[in-house]
Amino acid sequence: MEHDEITDDATDEDDQKPQPSEDIRKSGRKKRPPASYSPERTEIKRRRLGEFVTQQDIDKDVKGEPFSCGRCGSPYVVNKRNLIFVKQRAKRASLTKKPEPEVKEHYLQTCQVEAQALANRLQKPEANRLFCPEYSKEPCGCIQKYLKNQGDPGQADVRARELCDLLQKALQLAKLKFYPLPELDSNDKPIRKNARKKNFVGLGMGHKRSRAFEAFVMEKRQYLRNVVKLCERGCQKVLAYSNNFLHKRLRTEKDNCRVVIQRSKRTMGLLTAFEEFSKNKCCVDNCVKMADTHRKLLADWRERARTSQIEARRVIAEMLIPSAGCSKNCYNFINMVTGSSKGVISKVSQQMLWTGGDKEPPVHGLVKKANSIKAEAHTQSQPQPLIKANTDVSAVVNPSLDVQDIYGQPSGELEQVSGHPEGQTHSQPDPKQQAVISPDSQQQQLLQLQQIFEHQQQQLIQQQLLQHTLLNERMDNSSCTAQVENGGN
DNA sequence: CAGTTCAGAGTATTAATTCC
DNA sequence: GGAATTAATACTCTGAACTG
Length: 489
Fold this sequence. Notes:
Blueprint: H1 8-14, H2 43-48, H3 55-61, H4 80-95, H5 101-122, H6 142-148, H7 156-175, H8 195-198, H9 211-226, H10 232-239, H11 243-247, H12 265-268, H13 274-277, H14 290-293, H15 295-307, H16 309-319, H17 331-338, H18 342-355, H19 365-380, H20 384-397, H21 399-407, H22 439-488
Helix pairs in contact: 7-9, 9-10, 15-16
This protein binds a DNA duplex through helix 4, helix 11, helix 18 and helix 19.
């Protein structure tokens, strides 16, 4: 009876043992083989998990030659599963790469020709804007599809006229400004000089769009998105507004940006109330019980997560801090509290693992890029000795180089394994940027980086030793089993 | 249950431009 | 020169479906 209640994990362990003979109890039920709680697994299961277990596997996987760690002598490269993921990802990325510029260009030209033909047919010049330019992996063409393929084909021009009317109205309203325009003469010049100044034109010097345009865009955008089913770029084409028009934070507005971001339950205030938490099941540890005991903490976490994406990541990181060994809040619970998706939680979790518990989120890629461009420009204007010192620094502190050398892996394939993931880059300042940092702080940073690197290396070595030990145990066991079997035969 | 994948959507940045 | 606008681009997040 107790055996039947053993968890799946335990069952997994059970079927790893060789089963010499199927003993039958008096009751007629099969006798279960003795359960082992060691981390052994069956050949099939081990292969499914992507672990490398045989000598054959070892020989195959490292450049076709037997691998041996320069420090600990382990024949393993950290974790083959990660290697496989990296390879698969690289393979998939190559399959889903962006279209060639010529292909995209050709697509846009075709769109323009078709739209021009439509404009001629309708005798509305504005209609030459009526096409969707979006082309990331595949052409979107939402506007074209709506005009050609949806509903009665005979009504295509009716639908085109409808979109064209919206476009005309949008273009008309787009000319209006937030501030009253001065009266113009026949040459489109203000009748009175400095007329705008007298009307007290505020920030933006009269560029700001009118409320009428804003209201029109907001209303019709909903219709185009929800009813006509156009993509965002398609809506922008029809309603003559830009990406920034929606998202740019204006200094002259209280709410900053015009669009209400409706991207998550969190921002929409649709998260589960704390009172309801205990009614939901999250995991075996029942993390949701915290809603009864630590409600203030949860409320604080939720409030912080609501403020920004970056803060949300910090909160997730805090929630992922292990307590009592490796026990930590489950993904479902974190999702309930913060509203963040599993993908993000998973990313943060990985970053925490890679960095040994660094809670700070990585710098946004564009900021990183912009900084490196600025630093590069700055470096070029710096005196030569500083640049040289900088180069040395990069050579010393770049763990990926060293680790890759140790493992003898081809570059690019081990970036995840090498303890130098994307998420970690924030804690390691761009070497190029260090050109502008004083020598003292540079030395301090260098010291910190070296400590981080040493810590990572220790972790890797520990992992390898563990795997080595496990393999030896397995090989011992399997050789024993083989001997027993041979003896039996 | 932890983690991955992927399409679609949102976000952040640059560079050019306009206007005063 | 400063504050607004734009398009283009690249990056990140969400959420559902899926895997092991």
